[in-house]
Hints:
Elements: E1 32-35, E2 38-41, H1 42-55, E3 59-63, H2 65-68, H3 73-89, E4 92-93, H4 117-124, E5 128-132, H5 136-149, E6 153-157, E7 168-170, H6 175-192
Parallel strand pairs: 3-4, 3-5, 5-6, 6-7
Antiparallel strand pairs: 1-2, 1-7
Amino acid sequence: MLSSKYRVVVGPEGYLSPAAASMGIVLPEPGEGLIEGVIVPEREAMDEIAEKLLTAKNPTFFPGPLVLWAWNDQAIAKAQAVKALAEAVGAKIIPMPDYRPKYPMINPEIEINPNHPNLTIWHNDIDVCVFVGVHCHYANLALKIVRGGTDCYTIALCGEFGHEDAMVSLRDVHVAEIYKLTEIVEEAKIEVGVH
């Protein structure tokens, strides 16, 4: 029987942590987001993202091929927006340029391997990470591995329907939504006196 009280929280949850969807977590509708598996208004999820990023010791963005490859004008604009958001919170950027397995050859200081994201998180002592521009099927796999084996708080900014395996997830995130999130971060910095 599925638990209606299951929460998608920081791990480590175990070697074979359950997929959040199999535990009854559903994706949000347009204008909504997820916080630990609970559907909330989009603005509430954005506020949570801003708080987590601004209070993190080592926030890190993991951009994927959809923003790393300049395959169209929208990808270029989204990459610029992601860079501005990362700079606003003082986050590092570790790219995920492709999905081919590279272990053990990957250098976790400069790249994340979606098949072993926990290695990059452990090596860099990352406490909050943001997946953006990662194809959904790879994001879901990597987010589950992160939740299963690390204590990293995961955020997914998805251009499609969102990710139930992230601690916070937004759906339909494009250039305008990223700049809106950046504005919310800047407002939060003023409120708490962060420069």
